[in-house]
Amino acid sequence: MANKNTIVDLRSDTLTKPTPAMLEAMMAADVGDDVFGEDSTVNSLESKVATMFGKEAAMFCPSGTMSNQIAIRVLTQPQDEVICDRSSHIYLYEGGGMAYNSMVSVALIDGERGRLQAHQVEASVRPYDVLFPQSKVVVLENTSNKGGGSYYELDQIAAIHRVCQRYGLSMHLDGARVFNALTETGHAPVDIGHFFDTISICLSKGLGAPVGSLLLGSEENIKKARRVRKVLGGGMRQSGYMAAAGLYALDHHIGRLKDDHDKARRIGQMLGACTMVERVEPVDTNIVIGTVRGDVQDFLGQLRSQGILALAFGGHSVRMVTHLGVSEEMMNMIEDGLRAVRA
Ligand SMILES: *Cc1c(COP(=O)(O)O)cnc(C)c1O
Question: How many helices (H) and strands (E) would you count in the chain?
């Protein structure tokens, strides 16, 4: 029940805490030393997720940043080039990691709400020349964070895949929120898995686990990836406690994502009715982005004083993300809170 002290935290879907049932599953985990390959819970998580997406192998990582960065390292050589959207997480929010870890350059595309189109990818491919970096990998982000939770239809991915086949490019999926995308398109993970050489998924976003991501790919690529994870300091020991949370999340929290999407759409409407809000981007999954008229900090401060936390998202934008910690009572608080905002 929401009360005076309730905080509605919409800054991110990473803010969830394990549910009592998830904690119980963690406590009951059988663990071992995963650097020796002896943590049975990590091993089951890795094989479960690999099978789900139709890939040969998977590797548990502490974060999505690490699994993305390892993918680029495995798929490229120094002087190669990665093709991605200008607003993509792998380029914008990973500390310049592709340059630092893999010594590659980037070809940036101005996608539509974070989504690339096949013709844009094709136009970015460089012909072979000693002068040029070598185009090597295309990264798709699905859903797109900066794009406000937009997702790809499978035929859009298939069209990009055909371009990549033609030019011998690998494909990496930043699938931090891929289950949100699949919830909307109605496809199974295997339907999307076969397009990509490597896939990164996050357990710590809408799925509600405290920690963890996985990198998926061929046996050969995941074997290479394990060496890179080690050198980055990401080889963990009894990480089965975390993997158990991930297994629990995959079994119990995928089906409820549509509830997050439904709440996000309703928040989008409430936001649109707020006097201080000029525009709301389409709400496709669990991310709501609005443009504020006037001072963003003033807007966020007025919400904060009513126990509602949202995130400044560059320029006049604010972001609100739904997740399993947002109850119906909180939805009422959000509605009242936005109604009380004064320009
Ligand atoms: C959150 C996120 C990641 C990974 O983030 P970590 O905080 O490092 O786990 C990667 N890509 C996208 C699109 C994300 O939203």
Answer: 14, 13
